Input
Amino acid sequence: KQALEKLRTEAEWFSDPKRLKIEAEGLKWMGKQLPEGAVPKHIFFDNEHFILGMEAIPQPHDNLKELLLNGMLDFFLAEKLGHMLGIIHHKGASDPEAQQLFEDHAFFINLRIEPYYKHSARELPEAGTFFEKLIEDTLKNRITIVHGDFSPKNILVGKNKIIYLDAECCNFGDPVFD
Output
């Protein structure tokens, strides 16, 4: 995986490719906390060209977003997802090394707060006060390690396995965001 400066979106959206280092560290940290295979294994990180090498995800697997859009509703899967996210949050709350490693919020702000909360505040000025308070609370609550992009599009479902992807917004922050 190689990080690009301009993200592949319709809007002009830029982010420093150095964000891939956070993803590499996130994969390594989560790989130690979660069951085997729950995140792709980190193989290498090229800090000069911002290239992350990780294991390929074995087939067959499905993207959770596609499954949900096609009407799949599996309460056992939802319970397992919640349990695994709970592991991340529980272990992150008591890991001072990880908290220091993921202390910087810059990419979380650039990739989550700006395009979602601040954009929404601009589009809905009548909700501006709500979003300002939400941003303030989100950034001041430093509780645990947060994936930062815990979304069905970043979750693969394989045979008896859930696989998390895209940890480039990983930070020490507010677990409510996940």
Q: What stands out?
A: DSSP finds six helices and seven strands in the chain. Strands lie at 42-46, 51-54, 61-63, 144-146, 155-158, 161-164, 171-173. The two ends are 23 Å apart (CA to CA). The helical segments are 19-33, 64-69, 75-93, 96-101, 106-123, 128-140.
